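Narrative summary of target 7.
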Amino acid sequence: MATKDLHNLIKISVALPLEEIVSNNFFNGILFDTSFFESIEFVVIGGTLTDGQYKLVIEDANQSNFSDGAPVASEFLIGDPNALITTSQGILGLGYVGHKRFVVGSILSTGVTLGIASIGIRLIADRVRHFPLVPTP
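Modeled conformation, tokenized:
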């Protein structure tokens, strides 16, 4: 029975808008400031996939211009950092517990030959440091 308020304790953001993927490429996500949160989960959502493999790549940095950005070490990820989405309607989650202020989730596509795929990433931030989370207008 769901009796606890989750809605006001989390923030859901678009980390990568739905992308039509037509080639092997790296699709950069949107920078997220983790300074108000203690837990981050990236959720990759696959739509229709005709072929190819799609990997979530998480990078972090302390500088907002990402000049010090680098891939996150596996010790700061919860879940399988090598997991791939390979089927339509696939979903993949990967948690981040690093210590950098900024984080970004991106998609690396490989093996795309037919060139029809739609993939997006959502970010769920939890454990708000300044409770409660007040939506901005």
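The chain has no helices and eleven strands.
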